[in-house]
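Table S2 (text version). Query chain:
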Amino acid sequence: MGNTDSLFSLMEARDPTLLVWKLYLRAVCAHCERNSLLNSLYAIQLRTRDHVRAAITCVLFYLKDVHTYVQLNEKSYHLINARAHLKDYRTEKTSKTAILIIATYLYCQLPITILFTILGQTKIIFR
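Corresponding structure-token output:
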């Protein structure tokens, strides 16, 4: 990938959330996908913490240049990586929901059952 680490450092110095660069990053990712630059695409997705798209890229790694079932079996670690990315997404999403519930509870002092009803949560797991 070359100097992407230094480029991302400069981008994050300007905007740590990378929202300013969202349009440009989207265009770079589209270019990488169109031209089958999967390693570059994957590196960007990891850096931007885009877990779902990183999982999809892992599936593309798994399916790329495969002609036999033996080759599929040899590349199965890509599916394990994809599953790990989806677990990371779920963990991040769950923790954000839990933080929202706790913040709302502390701010409003509503009973926790009312908060679950308001937020439409039927099951929250705190670990």
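Notes on Table S2: Residues 11 and 85 are 24 Å apart (CA to CA). The helical segments are 4-14, 22-34, 38-47, 51-63, 69-74, 77-108, 112-119.
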